[in-house]
Amino acid sequence: MKDDTARTQYLRYVRARDAGHTDYMALAKKCDSYYRGEQWTEQDLARLRETGRPALTINTILSTVNAVLGEQASQRGDIQFRPRRDGEQEIADTLTKLYLQIGDNNNFDWIESQVFADGIIQDRGYFDIRMDFDDHIDGEIKITSLDPIDVVLDPDAKAYDPDTWTEVFHTKWLSLEDIKHLYGAAKAQELRAIAENGQHFSKDSFDIEDTRFGDTLINGDVFTNDSRADTKDIKAVRVIERQARKLVNVKHFVDNEQGDTRPIPDDWDDARVDAFAQEHNLSVIKRMDKKVRWTVTADKTVLHDEWSPYAHFTIVPFFPYFRRGKPFGMVRNLLSPQEQLNKVSSQELHIVNTTANSGYMVENGSLTNMSLTDLELRGAETGLVLEFAKGSTPPVKIQPNQIPSGLDRISMKAANNIKEISGVSDSLLGQDSAEVSGVAIQAKQASGRVQIQVPLDNLTRTRYIVARNILSIVQRYYTEQRIIRVVGQDPMTGAPTEEQMTVNEVTPTGAVINNITLGEYDVIVTSVPQRDTFDDSQFAEALQLRQTGIMVPDDAVLEYSHLARKHELADRIRQMNGQAEPTEEEMQMQQMQQEAQMQSMQLELQKLQAEVQNLSAQAQLTMAKAQDIPADNQLEMMRMQSSLQEKQMELQARMNIAQASAQGKQKIARLGVAGTIAKQGMTNEAALLKDRSGTKK
Fold this sequence. Notes:
This protein is α+β, with helices and mostly antiparallel strands and 697 residues long. It folds into four domains: 1-165 and 313-358 and 399-528, no CATH class; 167-304, no CATH class; 530-580, no CATH class; 584-693. The chain is built from 19 helices and 21 strands. It has helices at residues 2-36, 42-51, 60-73, 89-105, 108-122, 176-183, 185-197, 270-279, 335-356, 372-378, 407-422, 426-429, 438-451, 453-477, 531-547, 554-559, 566-576, 584-626, 631-693, and strands spanning 75-83, 125-132, 140-146, 151-153, 167-174, 206-211, 216-218, 232-255, 261-263, 282-298, 301-307, 315-318, 321-323, 326-328, 360-361, 396-397, 482-489, 496-503, 505-506, 512-513, 521-529. Strands 4, 5, 6, 7, 8, 9, 10 and 11 form an eight-stranded antiparallel sheet that branches. It has a three-stranded antiparallel sheet with strand order 3-2-12. A two-stranded antiparallel sheet has the order 1-21. It is flat.
């Protein structure tokens, strides 16, 4: 049965390889060499050298492709998750942050740029997304880019999404030591025996050197028997990894209320399935479904053959242009105009060279100061003097052919064809003339970007598939409690931020906080400018607003600059303007000053109260004395009493104002201190309450 599995795998691989992949490899290598500047074959170069003709390479493909790659690098993807069925917004936000952490852990932006470049140059680019257990005991998602030549597609597929494919192959060369480390010593020994006795499927299965005195023979024919086993050196073994969908009978959980279904993991026994179904009010059914079979073989040896642990293929494609199963990139259509430009430019240079040294017609034996060989070598020198024998025919310079009219225009047409086919204009290349206005350049750049929106739109589709597959792996394998550390930038100021959150946290009561394994979520894909480009535009707009009279704060302008310590400088500006948040020492100093002011106000109140009491006592004493004073002096006493009452009322009013002012300042001080303390703790408290509100059993 193992032999049948290996044979079937090899035959499926050969069918997919011969159904177009071999032709694709030749074209992909040619496109890659043209991008690097290797645009002449060895046969053409040898032929040109024999005839003394130049071979120029005017590599306009490089600048054209780099303009598109730069456009992609300036627009990074922003992935967010939105709750759908049984989903919660808090969990969706957690998944968004977790995706950001996974991308940062894998340097996703660089990997995406590599995949995008593979697609633009070689027609196809591929991500590979799977679990990795090298750095984390519970496993982490690892994202890599694959060589497009090593990925063999399903020849019957004709849709972009790999979920519609029947199978996909990834082939690579491994040494016997690698196979021993990955699949065991027995598998490596079995492959060595197959290679040494020569009974392998094809010479393509092994990279074998057979070294002898006379020559070096590589491999053998199909099913040939070679007795020189002791002279063979096995350099590498071709390993074929196939992921294929098969119809099988699978158990599913069914939500009794909404009717949603989920496949039951293969490693769950009946007791666990029954307990889970009873706890969540679910039913269990069996139905036919497609599962991914993961088979790895090397020639006749089966290295691995099990059901895939993932719901999707690990390979995610990027096709810049896609027409019903026919993907293609940008360089493919630029090969012909690039060859035309190189040939025409080389021909122009050859004509100029022949014009400068077209040759001489010389009578035999007429030259006296040099030989014919010297004339051949020095005939194009400036100030050359030829001496010929008296009575002989003087040497005559051969008139060169005239440059054909229109030859220079052909080279210009070839350069223009490259721009028209690619859609990359002079504005996108930054090659507009000086007399063109900035507004016109921006308008032309905007129209030029429309031409390259197709590959960028397909990149958005690929980003969606990547996020969907990552979400599937996260909900299936990120089931234990984990502490996630998310490092990013503040969206307003650009200052570095760091947040630590816990997913699948189990409380003492048994509740699970941030349970990311439940619920369904949609993927939202948008594009955001790269941080440097975004800062540049924001800095320029802030300065322009200030020039028009809008007072943009200094600290806001500084935050968009490229100074090394701009955040510290912005904080210092806020402190100078009195807008910075007070430190703990400043808060304590403010509180002490406010307490001293309140004590001073209380002393003033006490002094005023004493004066009022003193005046009251004097008034009472005056009234008591007024009874013994004669009638003619009582009028004077009444005037004194009235004056004392007015002074008493004035002091009472001053005391009321001072008391109200003291109470107001005391209240403001309490609110100021409490507000500052509350503001510092508001973020953590809100986050804690937010997490607690998302508790779900």
